[in-house]
Amino acid sequence: MRSIAKLDLQYAHRFYGFRGEAQYLHGHTGVLTLEVEDTINEGVNMVFPCNEIQKTAWDVLQNFDHALVLREDDPLLPAILKVYEEQGIRDGAPTNRQRGPAFKTELATAYPECRLVVTKETMTVEGMIKIVYDLLKDKLNIVKITFTSGMNAATEDFEPGGTKERCPRCGIELVEGACPKCGYPKV
Ligand SMILES: [Zn+2]
Ligand SMILES: [Zn+2]
Q1: Which listed residue, of 34, 91, 108, 125, carries a Cα 20 to 30 Å from 57's Cα?
Q2: How far is the CA of 38 from the centre of ligand 2 (A)?
Q3: What is the number of the ligand closest to the CA of 12?
Q4: Residue 187's pLDDT is what?
């Protein structure tokens, strides 16, 4: 069975080198749907709590929310960094509190201090699915990711990663045999 969680990401980007309107900077509300597959955990009668999927995903993906996503070779990148630098917000601002941990994968690097994500490939809906899977595949048993952004959408299926042992009280994955939330089975 599958547990399905959704989250919203508002971001700005452009398709550098593309011939259509999307070569100009513009914004979207993207909706990401994550499908996690496993057996039903008898204790809680769930595969995995959807709010926990959301929390795990949001921890990393909040770096894309209210962020600018640019390809590494886009000449807008040094131009924007120059403006941020001159404005004194390149290394952060007191009002920029919604920050996930900085990450760097082969496909994307996050700079949460200035709400910027630099990607290797153009951030299309397909490109976003590749980035998200890469960031979350070791944390969740993801079997499907769908990403919609305006009228655009893409979806991809992934191989199930096998079953994980979960807490019968909280439904979350056990870490070294114990629940990180309630301490099961120790308490
Ligand atoms: Zn777009
Ligand atoms: Zn627990």
Answers
A1: 91
A2: 17
A3: 1
A4: 58
